[in-house]
Amino acid sequence: MASQIPKKPETPAAPPATGSDDAVVLERRTQRVQPPQMFQVVLLNDDFTPMEFVVQVIQEYFSKDRETATQIMLKIHLEGKGVCGVYSRDVASTKVDQVLQAARNAGHPLQCLSEPVE
Ligand code: TYC
């Protein structure tokens, strides 16, 4: 006759997670959508790109009037860099490409980049 293996004592089933009375708790969560990250397009100073070319680039690609474009160019010239505009990621990236292409076509070393706004 085979020896009987003692059965494990049955553990009682866990009580329902909803607590007593089968109550269902609905949690209210407010969904908050963050505004999209914005990117500033920055021009860098160099010793070779003519001031007039930089002013024209700022006017054409960043829709600034001549006065504002000149002020931005002078700020870059004096401080090393300057913000020309703030855009969504894709628009900023396109602006960088356009400025770099225009500079290369004209034979100037002008540098342009985009970076997230704090
Ligand atoms: N420093 C340049 C010069 O003296 C002018 C310049 C300004 C170049 C802004 C680049 O992003 C620039 N000709």
Automatic annotation (TrEMBL):
NCBIfam families: PRK00033.1-5 (NF000672). Coiled coil: none annotated. It comes from the Bacteria. PANTHER family: ATP-DEPENDENT CLP PROTEASE ADAPTER PROTEIN CLPS (PTHR33473:SF19), ATP-DEPENDENT CLP PROTEASE ADAPTER PROTEIN CLPS1, CHLOROPLASTIC (PTHR33473). Transmembrane segments: none annotated. Belongs to the ClpS family. InterPro entries: ClpS, ClpS_core, Ribosomal_bL12_C/ClpS-like. Binds to the N-terminal domain of the chaperone ClpA. Residues 1-21 are annotated as: Disordered. One of its GO terms (molecular function) is peptidase activity. Involved in the modulation of the specificity of the ClpAP-mediated ATP-dependent protein degradation. Residues 35-112 form the Adaptor protein ClpS core domain. It comes from Hydrogenophaga crocea. Keywords: Hydrolase, Protease. One of its GO terms (biological process) is protein catabolic process. This is ATP-dependent Clp protease adapter protein ClpS. HAMAP family: ClpS.
